[in-house]
């Protein structure tokens, strides 16, 4: 009991425990903030990567794609582990916006409904009705002063008349009807928000509607390279599309390099659509050449694990490969984005490790403080030994002291860390308002907000680590205290 | 060992090494203390008085000889046994008081009782212990100062708190190492009055001092010189102390 009494008394001393606690508080706080922010980025990346790929991807071995994908989709959707599957073409291409030609790494042909069901495509549309309503009001003045026609158009916009066109990859009829040659397009296109050279992020990380291609369905010219089934290069195919929206997935590499077009149109451009078989002289043989795609994306049924759906898909794909004498690759979304995710995961691990190493400072600080306390308390130790305290009891006083410092330090540190992390964006705004300095500039970094979610698992482990480190810091001074000769310590002045 | 002896030092020798030199502090000291006896150990500085007291208190181990308490050799009791011996058998009072500065007078006295058993055991007997600590402070005339820390107490008051602490576990032997050494004669007299009162109540006391006047108050005095007992004297009822 004297151990508890002495710990409580020693904790009330002024500076020594305060410094030890402060070291633990700062290190705990630092590590938790770093882990939470880095973990937040990783989670955002993972969510974005997952959103782009569905759960499982069945991919052709080459850019020429594979046939019989409808049969594959039917077989996959018959599996209880699979909710829905959708065909996709993913090929390289060239985009021309205004006078700028931009090499785009990915031209992705999709069936919007199925693609949305698998990856939540509609939710990535950046431009919403409110952007358009605001733009309309800027053009026509306040709603109270607008003409009946303008108000009707405003009503249409506000009711989602335009917003759905991006999600459906459809060109609004109002644009098609305009007597403007520039509007003669093959279909709708939805580029990534970073594809257009006219888009730029402001200090809040937002894009300006006035500069978007999607404002009036600007013409985007797309060029792709069709290939024969054998992989032979054909003449480039160029068509114009109307930009009906732009998407933001959250992965910069994707948003700067991908455009979405309707699957059927892209199949036509690439010669991957269904065709009539001809003989060597070009005469119809009466047969049909099946359409091709490069990928089928699969979304798992609710409650099915990634491993389970992956195994089921692999089994179905194997059977399909045998039946159609073809070969494809099957991978999970984690495998597909493994390079990026592992890089960020490793970076997070490295930064956490570095901060944990820095946190050894806390252990040294606690050890130094406790050593000073042991020196200061030498006579007290002798007194306690003289009146019957055991050496282990003396050690317990200092270990318990370290434990108490660790618990208080870890508690306060993790509390402060949680406070800082959850208010990071507010703190940034405050720093910006007071000093004009932004620690996180969305113009430079892709995410417009600093991740502000506390990783409670990390918080728990870091707190436990802080307490253990604190006790470890107190260990050597505790052993030294316990080993002191009581006679010598009583003589100590 | 005599029949009436409560605690005995038999041929105690203690050497300290200082570089290449060996300092023989005690060279075969024999001392027997009976139950209820008040023994004063006198001697010059460096004569081995405090070392003898430390050995008898189980704080240190002799190089030769043994301390026997109630027929049992203390040194053989091991570390745990030594702790229990210091906790239950002897109560020690030091010249420099050695109170814990963070604790109040009452806590300084009570802490001796806390060394027994764990927290649960303490919770069961904390009221009794507190009552005894208050009683002891009252006995040494400090009940009004129970809530004060050592830095708010005078030297004499601190020493009386130290005596109360030494008595907390009702020790068989009170070992006092120059208890008046840091005090002026008047305050020293007050402290001695407390010790004498305890002795009158039957407390066995072994007190180290270099002050003849203080030693006069003991039943018996033992003079140490260069690590051996030089002279022993006993006070008779009528004649006072005789060497």
Low-confidence stretches of chain B: none
The order of strands across the largest sheet of chain A is: 2-3-7-4-6-5
Give the topology string of chain B: H per helix, E per strand: EEEHEEHEHHHEHEHEEE
Number of helices of chain B: 7
Could you explain how this protein is built, in words?
The complex is a heterodimer of chains A (493) and B (243). Chain A is α+β, with helices and mostly antiparallel strands and 493 residues long. Chain A is built from 19 helices and eleven strands. In chain A, a hairpin with a 5-residue loop joins strand 8 and strand 9. Chain A starts with a helix and ends with a helix. In chain B, the strands form two sheets. Chain B has a seven-stranded mixed β-sheet with strand order 6-7-8-3-9-10-11, with helices on both faces. A four-stranded antiparallel β-sheet of chain B has the order 2-1-4-5, covered by helices on one side. Chain B starts with a strand and ends with a strand. In chain B, 35% of the residues lie in helices and 30% in strands. With 243 residues, chain B is an alpha/beta fold. In chain B, strand 4 (64-69) and strand 5 (72-73) form a beta hairpin. The A-B interface holds A 1-2, 4-6, 9-10, 12-13, 379-380, 382-391, 393, 485-487, 490 and B 54, 57, 59-60, 79-80, 83-84, 86-88, 91-92, 94, 98-103, 107, 111-112, 114-115, 117-119, 121-123, 165-166, 169.
Quickly list its features:
heterodimer, A: 493 residues, alpha+beta, six-stranded mixed β-barrel, two-stranded antiparallel sheet, 15% strand, B: seven-stranded mixed sheet, 35% helix, 30% strand
Topology readout:
The complex is a heterodimer of chains A (493) and B (243).
Chain A (H helix, E strand, L loop, with lengths): L1 H10 L3 H39 L2 E5 L8 H9 L4 E16 L2 E11 L1 H8 L9 H12 L7 H11 L4 H6 L4 H4 L10 E5 L27 E6 L12 E7 L8 H4 L2 E5 H8 L4 E4 L5 E6 L5 E6 L5 H19 L3 E5 H4 L1 H21 L1 H17 L1 H9 L4 H32 L1 H12 L20 H27 L3 H6 L2
Parallel strand pairs in A: 3-7, 4-6
Antiparallel strand pairs in A: 1-10, 1-11, 2-3, 2-5, 2-10, 4-7, 5-6, 8-9
Helix pairs in contact in A: 1-16, 2-13, 2-14, 2-16, 2-18, 3-11, 5-6, 14-18, 16-18
Chain B lengths: L4 E14 L2 E14 L3 E6 L5 H8 L7 E6 L2 E2 L4 H12 E4 L11 H10 L4 H21 L15 H13 L5 E5 L7 H16 L3 E5 L3 H4 L4 E6 L2 E9 L3 E3 L1
Parallel strand pairs in B: 3-8, 3-9, 6-7, 7-8
Antiparallel strand pairs in B: 1-2, 1-4, 4-5, 9-10, 10-11
Helix pairs in contact in B: 3-4, 3-5, 4-5, 5-6
